[in-house]
Sequence to fold (1104 residues):
Amino acid sequence: MARTEIRPGLDRAVSLWLALLWASLLVLPWYTLEDGFFSFEWLDGYPIDSDYAPALFLVAQGEKLWLLPLFLIALLPFAVRGRIKTDPFYSRILIAAGLGGLAWMALQGFSIGIRGWQFETLEAWFGPLGDRQFGFGYGAMFVCFAFLFLLTQGLAARGAVNGDSFVVGSIGLVVAIVGIFIFYPIIRMLSWAMRTNDGVYSIGVFVEKITSEKIWGLGCVTSTIGCGAAWNSLFLAILVGILTTALGLVFALVVTRSGLQYRKAFRALTVLPIITPPFVIGLAIILLFGLSGTVTQFVAELFGVQPTRWVYGLPGVLLAQLLSFTPIAFLVLIGVVEGVSPSMEEAAQTLRADDWTTFYTVSLPLMRPGLANAFLLGFIESMADFGNPLVLGGNFDVLSTEIFFAIVGAQNDQGLAAVLALVLLGFTLAAFYAQRFWLGRKSYATLAGKGDSGLHAALPNRLKIPVYLIAFLWSTLTLVIYLMIVYGGFVETWGLDHTPTFRHYITAFSIGWTEHGLHWSGAAWDSFWTTIQIAGVSAPLTAAVGLVTAYLLVRQTFAGKNAFEFGTMLSFAIPGTVIGVSYIIAFNVPPLELTGTGAILIISFIFRNMPVGVRAGVASMAQLDRSLDEASLTLGANSWVTYRKIILPLLRPAILAALVYSFVRAMTAISAVIFLVSAEYDMATSYIIGRVENNDYGLAIAYSTVLIVVMLAAIAFLQLLVGERRLGRRSEKAQPLMAAGG
Amino acid sequence: MSESILHSNAASVTFQDVTKVYGGKVRAVDNVSLHVDAGQLVTLLGPSGCGKTTTLRMIAGLEMATEGRILIGEQDVTLLPATDRDVSMVFQSYALFPHMSVGENVGYGLTVSKLPKGEIRERTEEGLRLVGLAGYGDRLPSELSGGQQQRVAVARALVLEPQVLLFDEPLSNLDAKLRRRVREEIRDIQTNLGLTVVYVTHDQEEALAVSDRIIVMNNAVIAQEGAPRDLYDAPQDRFVADFIGEANILPCEIVRRDGEMADVRVGPIRRMLPARDLQPGAAQLAVRPKRVILSEAGREDALKGNLVKATYVGSHLEYRVETEVGEVFSIAEDDGKPFVQGSDVSVTFAEKGPVLLPADDG
Fold:
């Protein structure tokens, strides 16, 4: 059977991208549309009105003449007609067209903005420009994609990555979007940190801001004044990192190494906080331990002491964060604890180690990467956490809330926000590096391909009692808090008036009938539907980007792979608050004008949650033997077909994990969201925060309960949708909610 | 099986000065040239890390040659990726797709080549019939035994009627008895369909049993190639002699040449052996363990030895003997009167069998 002959001329993929290029130049509206594409308002006036016109009509009418070179560049690829793929000319032309097109798009995009020339030097050289342009719209966006893929096709034809155009294209795409949506905003933020409020760049101001007493003050050590936000954040994050890791380990041990019944229920209990909107726990803590909280009042009456506001500040924030983030540590550690090869423990025991020595010298060291990961996650989550400190912080200033107040407060000092965000980023990146350094190059792989028929060692006796005790107390606390949350939505005013009522639910979620049909009259419906919509759109995109990246990392070798991996994992170490600040700084002006749209929320979710998709994908793909891909390749499938028919079907658990995680995160995220929401696109979490700030706890809690129920339903639905792998052996349950986050 | 609807498009494989370098440093295959005739089964044999698997993967297109040219038939495929080569491969792990039925596995290559449905079904059934698994199409790979999975992998590769069929240690996951049967089956299918097969193994017995020709590789280069008997009877150097069928390598001296024959001396032993172009002087002698004969101590024309270890392994006895020219390993029939460990013995060699090798360079 003869395989594909190499025919001269453009192959299908190149023709396709070329067609897209020209379609975008000739047909699609070039600039961003104020009312969105799908409102189709733009059809009125299209294609002549310069706000809506495609590039062709703009240039034809003598406007935006700087777009003209794009047409010339877009003609280039036609020169390769009649040449074969391996002809050096073929690849050179495609690379030239792709690079040239992208370069020109960037150059004109950054040079010409809303007020004409963006840089004074340009104005000085060319004289004032009588024209201006807005952000890239669909036309410009697809032109960029087309140029990008022409470039990758050219690189593949030159022999990059064995000439595999699917792989080269994927690498190009991931590099481009990571560059635009992670590195670019961070760099923009860096430059803003050096600007004064008058728009002048000054190192002096930067130094002054970054060394300010408000950030680094050490007043709390010697006196009663509070310390700087940086120290507070750092101290809190280290505490949270250590304690969540310890608690997570305790739970993981109980679930895997004890014969206790109800382990499943226990597992569910520890997972619950993950699907809880972030500050709900903070709220519940106020309701229990606040000035008029149940526990506070009870204790006050019992001992006749004056109720205090002790919970506001470090204790409250710490408790809330522990409750919120321990499950994440648990999910990381359970995989690790299960992954420790039982034969190694059995080997230790046959070498006369007792159970405690075995645990301490073999099991625990093997869990080291898991412990480091769990600590890092707790640390970063705590640094980035915004909801709990806002609700419970009191006078305990932390960086994330300071950043928020710098932007929304009376100061409205984006420069200061950028500086604070930089400090925050510095901490998390340092932790990220410290973790890598600590783990070093040691191999902790204990799962060999061969079956391991051993049994996990039981818990050493001296660990059993404290572990069970902690697990029990903690579960009780969690249960009480969740009962409170549900209960709190059904009473008039918590702590004052415990009359049962549906008032909060009715205010938020009432549905009326009008002559136009169903009317979503409740106050929460707008933000609710926006949230569902945005979470629904971003989840599959996140999973897709994550799994493609994982595929590239695990299955392909290419130059610069390490840098590539670092870039894709970087957003994992960037707190949401920092993402939020950098996005409003970077995407408020052309060429990428995204603030106020739903797209910016979706994009922020994709890049916040992508590392989880990557990790889930990397973990499961590493278990797929490489020979499966190779078999498919030698049977005549190309790498795209192999990816689609072999790898994806076998990755169902990872897909599910990535989908569930990104959906849940999109529904519960607050730290980045709070900066990016707009009147039109308000998210549930920011709506709830607004209610909390108005002391409307009942409504906030009712809304949160609804979100939790919706998320549970969504998880069940996704599980059904993705289905299980059919492998014949024991049915493989999809992993529960993914470990690791950021 | 001449009525089979599956045909062979057998083509030759040629390497011209092919080199594969990993990471700019490690030379996995160093300037190798080889030729596999169409319709032959050729084995790449060697210890692990010798470059045999890399060679195979370069034929498949899973690795790209750093230098040199690779031809399949007349076509230069050096730059073609695996997808575009008309080659299929049976993997060591079988690499059956666990989420597809046996039939879907076998038909996979046909499906992605977009053949008509009817033809896919026909060829899949024929492929399964050829390997003796007719009727197993609806099962999952995990429901089959190791040997059956192996055959599915073979069928999957066969139905594409490849120009070259590659086997990467196909028997290593099977138990010893099954191994013998499956290798015979593979050989039968290959001869009946007239396929070109390149077969990688580290098991010399397997290689001797199935091959038309064997290419022995060591340290990234070809050590020797030839028909199985040539390699066994006339190894070129110490490595081949020892790798194919184990040999005692002993220092010896060629006293004089007499035409094609050489007068060889090992201690007190004298033999006339084919000279193999070696000149008088120091040389080495390769003696298979079965050609080492032990007898009572005290013979004049024998090496004096001390029996270090005697092991009874059922079908025969194994002796390790310390002699003046080094340790000698011997295999002897169990005649019911084994030598006693620790006793002195005389060591001689059979008239035929010992092979002269050049002296070690280093």
Summary: Chain B has a mean pLDDT of 89. The helical segments of chain B are 52-60, 102-112, 117-130, 146-158, 176-193, 204-210, 228-233, 238-243.
